[in-house]
Design goal:
The protein has helices spanning 14-21, 26-31, 38-44, 56-61, 71-88, 102-111, 128-137, 154-163, 177-183, 200-210, 226-235, 252-259, 273-277, and strands spanning 52-54, 94-98, 117-121, 143-145, 169-171, 216-218, 241-243, 267-269. It has 279 residues and is of the alpha/beta class. It has two domains: 1-47, Up-down Bundle (Monooxygenase), CATH 1.20.1280; 48-277, Ribonuclease Inhibitor (Leucine-rich repeat, LRR (right-handed beta-alpha superhelix)), CATH 3.80.10.10. An eight-stranded parallel beta sheet has the order 1-2-3-4-5-6-7-8. Strand 7, helix 12 (252-259) and strand 8 form a beta-alpha-beta unit. Helix 7 packs parallel to helix 8, helix 10 (200-210) runs parallel beside helix 11 (226-235) and helix 11 (226-235) packs parallel to helix 12. The longest helix has 18 residues, at 71-88.
Length: 279
């Protein structure tokens, strides 16, 4: 054993190491413990430690955001996802990424039937091709974030809603106009990726028809109107959380009338009605 001042960490049991490493993100394990010794690398490959791939913290702390839109960066994200799937031996349950493509998402769908949480924000190369596979192969899905991924259409949402009856959380946020204007200045960002004026009413009717069990719904910067919102609220009567920030086509009266049917609603984030009045 090591001295009292310098304990020999290599002598910790596998159970202790798993407990310690479980407190680190997958990225931090790859950059640290996996490089210490063969034993630690073996522990890091335990399937119980590879059920979650969450890159959101890395995205939030990064400053080189324009590079994210390049094919080279998308390939890096895809490679990371494929590696995580292989490490989990098909037991991946939570995936939170941005800027992935159909290739890696199809890889997930074909190998990880127990997937419960999926975030594919800002992923312009994800569409019906991979989302159909997710809907059909991952019926345990509980949370889906498709914010700012404009190729994920209402047809995709219909497939998920029809096949994933455990879905509780849907985030369908769009970019605010200020972000769209900023990204238009960069060569990496193709203009068709910035079509933020999606069919908000169609989204609302699709969600109301196929995702009635939702408890948490985010529709930031949506173009839905009062009538579509009222329909949505009547159909999704179990909603507990609503985020409508930036949805400038809604009125205060429309939101009040719509939410009056939501008896379980605990929190709502409303648009700035004063700001939209003068725009």
């Amino acid at each position: 054993m090591g001295s009292s001042l310098y304990p020999d960490w290599t002598e910790l049991t596998r159970e202790c190491l798993i407990d310690i490493f479980s407190r680190l993100s997958m990225g931090k394990r790859w950059d640290g413990p996996m490089l210490v010794s063969k034993k630690w690398m073996d522990v890091c490959q335990d399937t119980s430690l590879n059920a979650v791939l969450d890159l959101e913290a890395e995205f939030l702390s990064s400053t080189d955001t324009t590079y994210w839109w390049s094919p080279e960066f998308e390939e890096k994200v895809d490679s990371t996802i494929r590696f995580a799937v292989d490490q989990s031996q098909g037991e991946l349950k939570e995936l939170r990424v941005r800027h992935c493509t159909n290739q890696s998402l199809s890889y997930v769908a074909e190998r990880c039937p127990n997937l419960e949480v999926l975030w594919v924000k800002y992923s312009p190369k994800v569409n019906i091709e991979s989302m159909r596979k997710i809907a059909l192969n991952c019926p345990k899905l509980k949370e889906l974030d498709i914010s700012c991924s404009y190729e994920i259409t209402c047809e995709c949402m219909e497939l998920v809603g029809t096949n994933c009856k455990n879905l509780q959380v849907l985030k369908r946020n769009l970019m605010p106009p200020s972000e769209v204007a900023r990204l238009k200045r960069y060569a990496y960002v193709q203009k068709q990726y910035l079509s933020f004026e999606t069919l908000g009413n169609v989204d609302a009717y699709t969600i109301g028809r196929h995702m009635r069990q939702l408890k948490h719904l985010e529709l930031r910067n949506s173009t839905l109107t009062d009538k579509a919102f009222a329909h949505l609220c009547k159909r999704c009567s179990n909603l507990e959380y609503l985020d409508l920030v930036g949805s400038s086509y809604l009125t205060s009266v429309g939101v009040a009338n719509g939410t009056s049917s939501l008896k379980n609603l605990k929190e709502i984030k409303k648009p700035d009605f004063a700001a939209t009045l003068f725009n």
